Amino acid sequence: MHPVEFFEDFEMGTSRVTHARTVTEADIVIHAGHSGDFMPHHTDAEFCKTQPFKKVIAHGTMTFAMAIGLSVSGQPLNPNGMSYGYNKLRYPKPVFAGDTIRVRITVHSKEDHPKKKGYGQVVEVKEVLNQHDEVVMYAEHVLFVKKRNA
Amino acid sequence: MHPVEFFEDFEMGTSRVTHARTVTEADIVIHAGHSGDFMPHHTDAEFCKTQPFKKVIAHGTMTFAMAIGLSVSGQPLNPNGMSYGYNKLRYPKPVFAGDTIRVRITVHSKEDHPKKKGYGQVVEVKEVLNQHDEVVMYAEHVLFVKKRNA
Amino acid sequence: MHPVEFFEDFEMGTSRVTHARTVTEADIVIHAGHSGDFMPHHTDAEFCKTQPFKKVIAHGTMTFAMAIGLSVSGQPLNPNGMSYGYNKLRYPKPVFAGDTIRVRITVHSKEDHPKKKGYGQVVEVKEVLNQHDEVVMYAEHVLFVKKRNA
Amino acid sequence: MHPVEFFEDFEMGTSRVTHARTVTEADIVIHAGHSGDFMPHHTDAEFCKTQPFKKVIAHGTMTFAMAIGLSVSGQPLNPNGMSYGYNKLRYPKPVFAGDTIRVRITVHSKEDHPKKKGYGQVVEVKEVLNQHDEVVMYAEHVLFVKKRNA
Amino acid sequence: MHPVEFFEDFEMGTSRVTHARTVTEADIVIHAGHSGDFMPHHTDAEFCKTQPFKKVIAHGTMTFAMAIGLSVSGQPLNPNGMSYGYNKLRYPKPVFAGDTIRVRITVHSKEDHPKKKGYGQVVEVKEVLNQHDEVVMYAEHVLFVKKRNA
Amino acid sequence: MHPVEFFEDFEMGTSRVTHARTVTEADIVIHAGHSGDFMPHHTDAEFCKTQPFKKVIAHGTMTFAMAIGLSVSGQPLNPNGMSYGYNKLRYPKPVFAGDTIRVRITVHSKEDHPKKKGYGQVVEVKEVLNQHDEVVMYAEHVLFVKKRNA
């Protein structure tokens, strides 16, 4: 299989699933210190006992960072593509310590780049799934990719 | 000053700026290990010497996590608001080790919640600025907030 | 409420309580590596089973560091005050992984600075409380603070 | 040399010096996240440029934690002694990234325990020295130690 | 290219080179705390100034851990192979903060497993190279691998 | 007891046992990020449930790093010895979070250095034992040591 490299290589609707990773209490502790986000949902177990979920919730920013980490792991660098950013980052369900997450990446849309000739814009949907196959994060990743025959 | 708590408390166009934080080489190393994103832009100084920026670039996911950390630091928990997610996450300029970042948070739009009576939807723009006042990250944060007189 | 900034602003006996944070096994592991203190009370669960408390105990230096972290979080920098040091740092009870700690800060004494005209010396007592409202750390923090009308 | 174990083994005025350790930027970053203390003296290089020392200063709580780590490293556990706490913790000079610190531990005073028969109270002074032999931290460590012939 | 999975798939003398990673001061600090190895070659910059290399040297155990990390990154799990251990782990040259390392993995020997029918023993040489193409670590990794037609 | 310093000081068959350390989930998480080794045996709890051991296994490279850390902790630097490398690194049994490990170090062989006059070669066996006294790691550490009367 040759790597997906040029705009033409992205096929609408195709998807791949990354390997998985278990989120741990240690990850949440490290993320709190790394990001400086010590909100009680993430670091105060007594507060969390009074809340609907009863336990500490992983930071959304951590799930996002791990999702990108899982997505790029083992992937070759694509010299013909660059990340433009993300649209619609959503967290439909919480992630807890002990959950095992993986990412399903789907080619969601393709179109010519509005301004840059020889380039296309690809949107990949990145869905983070937990061990119950529930979507816990949804993001639309916008890529600018060179056309092969530009 | 009473805290911004209910939908009515958000005033269009007002903004606040957080305290600042210097991004370090250690942060980038910790983020690579924490996220599992060891792409060469972030962890291979020799590769980076061959690239336009000549040096290692901070992960976009780290800038995002630190931006949220700066935004919530010292803020009271708002029991009447909840984060729905983000729109349009963009990275107009790179962040390097040694850069000092802070976040400017602006009330960008307000409207009634499309479905949930008694609630409004607020979009706050979070712009990460570096020490040269350049915008290095732009995000639209979508909040659902209770109305005071719901 | 204007910030407590000058010597005159400190009112004897007033106190504030910080937000709370749960101490985790990960924190103790990180602290051992960070400080280099691998004494068996903190890192050897088998040894601890033979001791009165039966389980691993948090480092006193970690409780102290977290107490200061909780104390300064969200507080404005006071350009008119400086920390002189601490007196009587005591640990009346152990802290375990799973405990949730917060800090009660009380203005304990006020007097003119013995030598520096225009300055006063304030002692704030910092008590770390666990989820059972037990005092697990006690410290007297000595501050030198400018007088407003110096 | 037999280990210093009982009250009688502590000789007034004797001292030992620990091995040394270089404080790094990474240590300060890790300590900020671990303690939650992101005050600008420790994490904002731009702010620090406007201050007398011109650069980021290590957290006092980190110097304290490292000092205890250096003090206990390679020392046998003393089953006849217990730490009661500290008096007079002072920071006469700042510690910067790049400084190399070690601890000089001196038997400062010895007296019978005021209440507990068969025990004595020993005060050890722990002085943290930098590479210029300047004292950057001073602490009086109070120990309760069993008497050999109690 | 199908993955190297069975004994028959390993071809004598073939090699692959992993992606690269820059070793940083932060890595050395983290490794010292993680391993508990605070020997002065790794953590005392003043001591190192008196030594032939003049600066802090990375722990051999860290180079080893990173080498394995680089080797497995992006590789599929091989259900037909298992690691038996290593022979001849050598460190011909030091690694310093700022060095960029990668691993060259070469099939060094193949033979029938001495006892286990249907299995072979493969030795892969893992050489860690720095940015000057110098070998800084050499290890012989012993694998037990199922035969395809066992 | 004078320190073991010269070739003559190593006595065949003598051994010492280090202090112990409990391996935690946090250690495994930190090691995965530090080494970049996110293989499912170490980071995917769901995968591990399908495997013979049912739970996450510590990285062999972490056990090795901790073993060296335990071995050198509190030991004086020997100016007359240098590490040449390791032979036969083996992992007879897995290490799990919660296991407490210590190292037994035995003088295994002594001979004249094959080339370097005035030096000898000493092999120390380092065996990592868990709380059930099972050997979980075995390594032969090769040292070059000066002779006292060289």
From TrEMBL, chains A, B, C, D, E, F:
Domain MaoC-like residue range list: 13-120
InterPro entries registered for this protein in UniProt: HotDog_dom_sf (IPR029069), MaoC-like_dom (IPR002539), MCH/BMMD (IPR052342)
Name this protein carries in UniProt: MaoC family dehydratase
